[in-house]
Model the fold of this input.
Amino acid sequence: MRRRIVAGNWKMNGSKDLAKSLVGDVRSEVGSLANGVEVVIIPPALYVADVASLAGVDLKVGVQNVSQWSSGAYTGEVSAEMAADLGCQYVLVGHSERRQLFGETDDVIARKVERILGCGLFAMVCVGETLEERDAGDAEVVVAAQVRKALAAVEPGQWERVVVAYEPVWAIGTGKTATAGDAQAMHAAIRKVLCDMGAPAEEISLLYGGSVKADNAAALFAEPDIDGGLIGGASLVAEDFVSICRSVPAGH
Done:
């Protein structure tokens, strides 16, 4: 059975007070969930230590990005080794905001994935197409290429620490969401690409992200190839985030 995961990406939001209140509220609720969902909090790097100290055994902790280098004269960068040292289990990599705003290429993302897995962490790899690419009928081709390139260096024994998050760029922070059917179709296509790469595709968790909210999460998570979600804005409100976590069906 694939792991069911709901991850909250705080993006560039947060404070020590928010970490204390939000993580405490989420932790107090998710410990009683009966659906077996794995809940991950991914704050800005400056608050990882605060979140890790509050997470307890019921929450996993991630970081939003790491460098493709392990150490050295790279001012402002954070390494995968540092993330592991602080108690992170997950690293988010390849988010469309990193691609679009910071010029990260598929090659850079692949090098980051290699570093993340080499440090024993889980790589949560984001892929997704723009509205223009979808309208042109190229969505599956674009996403398939991103998957192949980002995961090209994954070794046979590392696939169990790979998670793929499909986030259509046109649905991130826009209020627009892919229909459950559209999201399922892309997740099925991603799983086929993974199979073609020789990965144990049926064992790899695939998440959907892009304006996921409490009122649409259940329909998305009911699809057979959607194993949870990567949540943005709704992860900053404990009640909404916990509701989304509850929406993952048990035994999915």
Observations:
- The beta strands are 5-9, 38-42, 59-63, 90-93, 122-127, 162-166, 206-209, 228-231.
